[in-house]
């Protein structure tokens, strides 16, 4: 799949700013190193908080989070993952928790919740869906390979499609449901 010119330039700029990562033998190790040394520091620099595979954008009005979610059937040589994005107003989440007390205090972007928050202005989607460039996609890293191109592509997509959505909602009032 070819990226549009503007997105290719953005990927190149992000790629140049990333710390190098030593390729490891296992794809899971490459994925972990990419998250720890390339993705997490960049996301924290953009104002998100968190580590590992989950990050939140600070807001008093919304739950804004993203999660890196490994897919099933990964192998030693190939590791695929999705990036899930959730934006749910705190009021809507609280109202749902009243009816479902087993729900956590805040939503986890790695978990599927059978409730539609989109009519209230929320988002429940995978990053590949938000890109709107053909079919949804997953990202893949390989054992023994440099993960920098994948990290740069994911970060550029987050900066282009998710950060503006999060920043626009951070203190905005949700739509009436």
Short structural summary:
The protein has helices spanning 5-17, 27-45, 90-99, 127-130, 148-169, and strands spanning 49-51, 54-57, 62-70, 78-89, 123-126, 139-142.
Describe this entry's structure for a reader.
The protein is an alpha+beta fold. β2 and β3 form a beta hairpin. It has helices spanning 5-17, 27-45, 90-99, 127-130, 148-169, and strands at residues 49-51, 54-57, 62-70, 78-89, 123-126, 139-142. Helix content is 38%, strand content 20%. Strands 1, 2, 3, 4, 5 and 6 form a 6-stranded antiparallel β-sheet that branches. The N and C termini lie far apart (37 Å). The model has no long low-confidence stretch (mean pLDDT 87). The radius of gyration is 17 Å and the shape is globular.
Helix-strand layout with pairing:
Blueprint (H helix, E strand, L loop, with lengths): L4 H13 L9 H19 L3 E3 L2 E4 L4 E9 L7 E12 H10 L23 E4 H4 L8 E4 L5 H22 L8
Antiparallel strand pairs: 1-2, 2-3, 3-4, 4-5, 4-6
